[in-house]
Design goal:
The complex is a heterodimer of chains A (about 475) and B (about 300).
Chain A: H1 2-7, H2 13-45, H3 48-53, H4 62-69, H5 77-98, H6 107-136, H7 139-170, H8 172-206, H9 225-231, H10 236-267, H11 271-286, H12 289-300, H13 307-314, H14 323-326, H15 328-353, H16 357-365, H17 370-381, H18 383-399, H19 402-407, H20 420-429, H21 438-462, H22 465-468
Helix pairs in contact in A: 2-5, 2-7, 4-5, 5-6, 6-7, 7-8, 8-21, 9-21, 10-15, 10-18, 11-15, 15-18, 18-21, 20-21
Chain B: H1 9-45, E1 49-51, E2 54-56, H2 76-109, H3 115-127, H4 134-146, H5 151-154, H6 159-183, H7 188-195, H8 200-211, H9 213-229, H10 232-237, H11 246-256, H12 263-282, H13 284-294
Helix pairs in contact in B: 1-12, 2-6, 2-9, 2-11, 3-6, 6-9, 7-8, 9-13, 11-12
The chains are: A mainly alpha (about 475), B mainly alpha (about 300).
Amino acid sequence: MSSTSQTATTALPSETSKMSGNIIAVAGAVAALVGFFLPWVGFIKNGALVASLSGVRVGASPVVELAGGNVLYRGSPAAYLVPIVAVIVIGLSLYAIFMRQQVAEGDGFVKIGLSLITLLVLWGQFARAQGVAERMGVELQLQYGLIMVLLALTAMIVAGVLDIRVAMAGNPAFRNVLNALSFMSPATFMVTIFFFIPVVLLLALSLTDLASSNFSDPWTFIGLENYRRMFSDRFFPRILANTIFYVVVTLGVFNVGMALVLALLTNHIPRRASFIFRLLWLLPRITPSVIYIVMWQRFVQVPPHGIINQFLGWFGVEHQPYWLNETPWLFVILVNGLVGASFGMIIFTSAIEAIPKDMITAAKVDGASAWQIIRDITMPMLRWPLLFVTSYQTLSLLVSFEYIMLLTNGGPGLYTTEVWALTSYKRALGTYFGSNQWGYGAAWGFVLVTIGAILSIVYLRVFRFDDLVQEPKIDVL
Amino acid sequence: MTTTTFETERAYGARRTIGQAIPYILLCLSVLPILLGYAWIIIATFSYRTEGLKPVDAQGNFGGFTLQNWSFLNDPAVWNAALNSFLIAVSMVIGVGFVSSLTGYALSRMNFRGRKGFLGTTMILHAFKPEMLLIAIFQVLLFIGGLPLLGDWIGFNTVGGVALVMITLELPLGVWLMKGFFDNLSWDMERAALIDGASRFRVWWEIIIPQIKPGLAALAIFTFITGWNAYLVPFTFTIGAKAANLPVLLNQFSGDTSLASWNAVAALGMFQLIPIIIFFIFTQEMLLNIYSGGSKGGT
């Protein structure tokens, strides 16, 4: 406060708005404090506090009960969040008022961000809190408390906006950052909600036993039990072997092998014809997965429906089974491979076209055969595209299960074509077993997410994507 | 001097023809399954029944051409699903286009603290495959669904929720593509406007966006197809027919229908394929570009 009195004689407009911002922050902090603990008064009246203090577990923990667990649904993880966030909000605004000499760039954002998080949590828990409050007989207190909290949060947001305006007025660089942030914020917000929070949530889920049978209960943390269960599953070796087999064979035969062969072949025919083939190769990719699988289902059926068996009939072959049961892996790999191969083919084709024509002409003049040209010129030039396609498609095969789910759903029989990703999905979200085991499924899924995250970072380093990144063209005029 | 045997002109010609034919034969074989699949869809759509690829009538004789498979057009559930599909696709076109061009512009043109970090994150997320996150996103959507007001629009089992998830999952690709388009743009006009005092947002909307219309169109086609075809996300986050889209409906329908009468399934499939085929016929060049250059791979 000393700095304020010193500059009071030359009070700048920014200085006054800084002051008003901070006054509002104090008001917000006090209101949040009162609002939070008002329902607690009613709670004492009901004797629940005594019970929780004496160690009788009314809810998830005495701490939660103390810090406003009755406002929120008891025992839900959100109940832990609100008191923590409230304490941080209050502490921070106090810090901003008494310790800061100036408004820092981050002040406003921290205030606004924390307020919004608190608001969101409260919003989500309000219906449950009402139920609890009714049972406890503290509805009135809950209402007062809620109004206080909302007022406080609004005040905090206003304070944050004022902080930002003050910081902006004195700092053009900060204005630039703010400009950029306003452009970035929609994407950041969405990616946070549907990428980053789910990653954390997946880890948290994998440590609980959440399932549809105990869905309405609070989450119970059971440590690494899900992972232990996963590794000791009777079918674990089989699923692991399936996954490796599926990834390696699909990758080797189709996504890289066939893609390479096709790219080399299209390179040996006129451009117009090769364009048509490349276009046709897009068809599996842009055909809706469900329809694509319907087509394959028709291929493999028993007579008189099956198309393969119709062809076999023309050649007089007697053996006309339901091919999906006869050779399930063949079709799982074909179905995925024909979609996957086009990706590599397109990349390889453009890489081959980028090879200088002089080199090939020179080799031809020297009498090299087509095979020699491929072996000694084309292939060495394709080293990076090959590595790129291999690594990229490994990850994509590892976590993709849509086509397998539609085609065989892991069958026929037990786990014949079930891969890791499919197991995870079925355990967590499939209703085939009559129950969703989110916790257990999340454990399977989190292993893949970890592998995926590590691999993507490794690719980034190996392929030096950072070097491709251009510097911004307009930064300072 | 050693005696060399020269092959006759005719033999050489024959060898050449065979050599030239081999690539075509192999390439034709490689596209055979998808062509046969489409052939079946088309034949089955317009026939009473099919045996293999042969259209047959009730007695099993060749023929039996009919339009009765299209009777599903009287079914309001189909139109509801088609509307949902369309809404998902259109919100993806608008959402991905708008948000990615905002973000792509900032990443391409502005220098701010954390830019490198944002770019790195975009690239990691681009390589990262989000299918496994569906389990956790399910919980997020349930949470949003419990919120007053918001929950009815973007919660679990709503078209809005499905669209929002799909938009977000497509963002890393969209941002990356748009950044590439912006990078290739000359910045003279933009700089002049900024010097004249236009705000960043105004420059973006009035000067930059009109210049990248072709790029936006390509992204729009790509996202429309992705949204229209979407199966996994709608299947996971919807229950029953309320928010189901065409692929979900089709999958359920094919499961409920006996193999002999899959001609109705084929017709419904054909119905769903109409926009895809239109794009395929009229925007081939653009499609190939999206799936090769920019995208570096959808799946």
